[in-house]
Every structure is written in C-alpha cells, then in structure tokens.
Amino acid sequence: MRYQITGKQIDIGDALQTHVKQELGTVFGKYSGRPTDASITFSKSAHEYVCEVTVHLSTGLTTSAKDKATEIYAAFDGCGEKIDKQLRRYKRRLKDHHKDRAEPVELHNAASYILAREEDSQDYAEPDTLQPIIVAEMETKIPSLTVGEAVMQMELAGAPVLVFRNEKKDGVNVVYRREDGNIGWIDP
C-alpha cells in the first residue's frame, strides 16, 4: 500500500505517520487483500484538527472519510473507524461484484468544467449572453463499471451523483441519490 501523508500548515511527525500506516494497514488487510493507495491530509480549523482520508482500491473503487477532533490522533482514529465501517458494510457486495473481474476498472479521460454562479439579486436582469462563464477547466476520469458497482462507488465516496461508462451497454450513464432517499439511474 502506498501512503501520501501530508499536513496543511502543520508538522506531521514520524510517530503519527507510523500510527496511520499501521491502522490503515490493519483495516485494509481485513477487507481487501489487493494493494491500495491512500491519501491522508491533516489540517487545523480553529481549535480542532481535521483529518481527511481518501483511499483508492485497485478494483477502481474509492472510499473517503473526514473527521474532526481536538487531538490529531483522535481525528485520524475517527476517519479510520468510518472507513472500516464503510468497507465492512460493503464487504460482501465487493466480493460478489468483483469476483469475476480479472482486471482493474478501466478509466476514460473527460473534460470537467466549473461554471460561474449567477448572482442572486432582487433586480433580475436578462443576461447579455446565454453562454456561461467558465471559471476552471480540469481533466477527470470516468470509470467503466456495471450499474451495481457504480451505485456502490457512489455510496462509498459519499457523492450525490456518479457519471460512469456502462460496461454492459458501452454508453455513458449516471446514478444519483434522489430526494426520497432512493437511487436514480439515467441510461440514455
């Protein structure tokens, strides 16, 4: 497992790095015998330490957690418990969905844009143009998954929506969390 442990404007000591590696190694030894990459970021917000953990499994799934506490070790331990709970909850589904998968998930490049938000005002005037203002352009990856894997990926990442290439139909699909708590699937 490869670890990237960083601190935003705080010093991360060797003892904390060793603790992080041991704890995450134990969690992922239980649930996934495959090599993984982990990104752990520590920061300080007022009097609390914030820990953000993102782990990329070799199957293509990503799980993430965020926690705060007054002590840095407690913040990390909270994240570790959340990731442990996520993987424990999906262990059986991960086994069933990826039993037949011999290779990792294929990723496709795509363009991603951030558009400027229209200003909310009482005096709404008609815009000069209907073209949105692009604030940022980035590149993103779109995974090739089955619908079940896409739903699991969305839930593991805690995302409200996931765009993916459907392996069965070879088209771009979307799964999203509906307001009623159910999951919607758009298959054009």
Automatic annotation (TrEMBL):
<keyword id="KW-0963">Cytoplasm</keyword>
<dbReference type="Pfam" id="PF16321">
    <property type="entry name" value="Ribosom_S30AE_C"/>
</dbReference>
<dbReference type="InterPro" id="IPR038416">
    <property type="entry name" value="Ribosom_S30AE_C_sf"/>
</dbReference>
<keyword id="KW-0810">Translation regulation</keyword>
<comment type="similarity">
    <text>Belongs to the HPF/YfiA ribosome-associated protein family. Long HPF subfamily.</text>
</comment>
<dbReference type="GO" id="GO:0045900">
    <property type="term" value="P:negative regulation of translational elongation"/>
</dbReference>
<comment type="subunit">
    <text>Associates exclusively with 100S ribosomes, which are dimers of 70S ribosomes.</text>
</comment>
<comment type="subunit">
    <text>Interacts with 100S ribosomes.</text>
</comment>
<dbReference type="InterPro" id="IPR036567">
    <property type="entry name" value="RHF-like"/>
</dbReference>
<dbReference type="GO" id="GO:0022627">
    <property type="term" value="C:cytosolic small ribosomal subunit"/>
</dbReference>
<dbReference type="InterPro" id="IPR032528">
    <property type="entry name" value="Ribosom_S30AE_C"/>
</dbReference>
<protein>
    <recommendedName>
        <fullName>Ribosome hibernation promoting factor</fullName>
    </recommendedName>
</protein>
<dbReference type="InterPro" id="IPR050574">
    <property type="entry name" value="HPF/YfiA_ribosome-assoc"/>
</dbReference>
<comment type="function">
    <text>Required for dimerization of active 70S ribosomes into 100S ribosomes in stationary phase; 100S ribosomes are translationally inactive and sometimes present during exponential growth.</text>
</comment>
<dbReference type="GO" id="GO:0043024">
    <property type="term" value="F:ribosomal small subunit binding"/>
</dbReference>
<dbReference type="Pfam" id="PF02482">
    <property type="entry name" value="Ribosomal_S30AE"/>
</dbReference>
<feature type="domain" description="Sigma 54 modulation/S30EA ribosomal protein C-terminal">
    <location>
        <begin position="131"/>
        <end position="184"/>
    </location>
</feature>
<dbReference type="InterPro" id="IPR034694">
    <property type="entry name" value="HPF_long/plastid"/>
</dbReference>
<dbReference type="InterPro" id="IPR003489">
    <property type="entry name" value="RHF/RaiA"/>
</dbReference>
